[in-house]
């Protein structure tokens, strides 16, 4: 299923709002593909118990998947 541009932008905004509170270096607190990939690889250990972590991972996976289409 391909998301509309508006839906994808809404998810990116939600993702950025969630991770803004997480322990992540400032250069990775955005929704670029590199930052999202970094979050999926390195963001779990210090943030896995934080609120909305599972939602952030789900959104990150959607962003990566949609970027490959």
What is the strand and helix layout of this fold?
Layout: H1 5-19, H2 33-42, H3 44-47, H4 53-67
Helix pairs in contact: 1-4, 2-4
The tally of structural domains comes to 1
Assembly level: single chain
Structural class computed from helices and strand pairing: mainly alpha
Question: What is the tally of helical segments?
Answer: 4
Question: Main attributes?
Answer:
69 residues; mainly alpha
Account of the protein in words:
The protein is mostly helical. It has one domain (5-67). It has helices at residues 5-19, 33-42, 44-47, 53-67. The model has no long low-confidence stretch (mean pLDDT 91).
Brief account:
Helices cover 64% and strands 0% of the residues. By secondary structure, the chain is mainly alpha-helical. The model has no long low-confidence stretch (mean pLDDT 91).
């Amino acid at each position: 299923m391909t998301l509309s541009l508006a839906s994808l932008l809404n998810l990116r905004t939600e993702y950025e709002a969630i991770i803004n509170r997480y322990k992540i270096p400032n250069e990775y607190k955005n929704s670029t593909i590199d930052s999202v990939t970094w979050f999926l690889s390195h963001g779990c250990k210090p943030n896995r118990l934080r609120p909305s972590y599972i939602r952030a991972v789900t959104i990150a996976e959607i962003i990566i998947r949609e970027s490959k289409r």
